[in-house]
Amino acid sequence: MADPTTSVSIPDLSDIESEFKGEILRPGTPAFGESRYIFNTRWVGRDPALIVKPKNTEEVASVMRYASARGIPVGIRSGGGHGVDGSAMPEGQLVIDLSAFKDIEFDLETLQVTLGPGVVLGEMDTASEAHGLVVPAGTVSNTGVAGLALGGGVGYNMRRFGATVDSMLSCEVVTADGRVVTASKTENPDLFWALRGAGHNYGVVTSLTFQAHKAGPIVGGGAVIYHLEDAPAVLKKLREYMKTAPRELSMIAALVPTPPMPGVPEEYYGVVKMSLLTVYTGDLANLDSVVGELAALGTPAAVAVQPMPWHIVNSILDEAAPYGRRVHTRGGYFEALTDEIIEITTSRAAIAPPPEVPGPSTVQNIWFMGGAISEDFDEDSVSFSREGAGIFWESVAQWDSPENDDTFAAWVDGNGDTLQPLMLGNGYCNLTTDRGPEWLSRLYGKPAKWERLVDLKTKWDPQNLFRFNKNIKPKGA
């Protein structure tokens, strides 16, 4: 992926320190080295020129006014630094680090929650669970809420409540020229539309308000595990089952070396199998029946689904996506899970490179959509696209040694290249590496949506200061 750096000279910001009370971290200091650490260590060799850590929204605004007046592009690091392209820490650039913005506030009358952009999913889930609430979001607890939400947001509650952006009510935003505005359906609705799916391009979001939903706090979670040779037959039955499955059931068919899990025999650890990652948020009296139906799709190697607190269920994949490894991803949408897709994904799983260390280093996830995310929200209601998508597929590899970069990346890209002709043009930007401008122009669906996004980028960020992302360029750039 090309690193969209510029030759702009970045001052040391000493002339604004009188009004900026947060930290200004310069290369060579211990705090700088610690702060530039991000999820994907393929990019930890990139050194930003400066990292600033504002204490409040007005300090973010002062930095943006400073940057705008001088044409200085800005990288944004929110809570998780999870972006697979490493755009939270661009080489030689100015970075605003929002990881200290950790406020979480609930309005229990309206069931709304307002979060700072430094909040990660585990923190949100634990706080929400205490009130019997969930915000539909992602599946790894150290992921930042803001970065996930601004790209769209998919996870275990999408079939029941929709994507993360479908529950977003408003954002506080610092614009490229340093103004502080609210974006909602009634205030700056054009910006609000763009933020919900392409938000990394349009401003610095300093708080997000969501509609929370009643669910939990105890839900069913775990996996029904099948031997890889049984996966094709089970997947063909599963695709039919999911057509009428309750919305409370979320399903990811993961072709992966089996991670340690309660109820899974140790001899399966590290062996490639198909785990039906199962989350059921409905009446727990029905859990055994649902699990029994999944187990009846074939002859399971293990059944390990049980009632657990929501925040535990939503961290099951943490071991499969630990912080601080080298990562490469590809992803896309399919209209349906065809026999050809089943054959390709299962055969590619069988030739995955062996892991460097024990654990699930390679995976293909087949997410079943449907329900709320597919049926309840108009395609044009937000910039995030899901039109026509019945399946979301992603392939991820994780490793530690730079000398193995080509081996693991080639397996992931081989999966993606083989399946690409079968994919829809639209997709979900967060769970795939940047594939370039032509790919990006189709990611949001209809050409009219892309044109609208370009027009809004031209309006809200004409200098393209927010360019370290899957970048939508303003007109003339």
Characterization of the model:
The chain has 477 residues and is an alpha+beta fold. The chain has 14 helices and 18 strands. The protein has helices at residues 30-35, 57-70, 121-129, 145-151, 158-161, 189-198, 231-241, 287-295, 310-313, 339-350, 372-375, 405-419, 437-443, 447-460; strands at 23-25, 50-53, 74-77, 94-97, 104-107, 112-115, 133-134, 168-174, 180-184, 204-211, 213-214, 218-227, 249-257, 272-280, 302-309, 326-334, 362-368, 391-399. The strands form 4 sheets. A 7-stranded antiparallel β-sheet has the order 15-12-14-13-17-18-16. Strands 5-6-10-8-9 form a 5-stranded antiparallel β-sheet. Strand 5 (104-107) and strand 6 form a beta hairpin. The longest helix is centred in the last third of the chain and has 15 residues, at 405-419. The radius of gyration is 22 Å and the shape is globular.
Distinctive features:
single chain; 477 residues; alpha+beta; seven-stranded antiparallel β-sheet; five-stranded antiparallel β-sheet; 14 helices; 26% helix; 23% strand
